[in-house]
Amino acid sequence: QVQLVESGGGLVQAGASLRLSCAASGRTFSGYAMGWFRQSPGKEREFVAAVNWGGDSKYYADSVKGRFTISRDNAKNMVYLQMNSLKPEDTAVYYCAAKLGGGNYYYYQRYAYWGQGTQVTVSS
After folding, report:
1. How far apart are CA 120 and CA 75, in angstroms?
2. Which of these, 29, 42, 70, 109, has the minimum number of CB atoms within 10 Å of its CB?
3. Sequential pLDDT tens for the chain (124 residues)
4. Residue of 82, 78, 100 lying closest to 23 (CA atoms)
């Protein structure tokens, strides 16, 4: 089992920045690829970013490429999502997720463990 707890969400104006954090506990953290997903009311859960277990391969949705940066610190069992130049369309609940192995980073169905989510609201 892997337990995930997100933090760092909030209400900001368009153009601002936020940094989401995800604290992991349980099984060996470094063996898991980590992802961030988001979901807004009436929409399906959407891939945002992912990082492999070593931290040297990163993947982004086109909608956030160049604005968001995912990183991880295996020594601290932490994953981060730095979000810059936020837009109102980034408003959603953001979830941290963990999966074993590589590949299929974009599909939420492949992730076995999820946090409870943190709300990000961007006002125009």
Report:
1. 27
2. 42
3. 889 999 999 999 999 999 999 999 987 777 899 999 999 999 999 999 999 999 999 999 999 999 999 999 999 999 999 999 999 999 999 999 999 988 889 999 999 999 999 999 999 9
4. 78
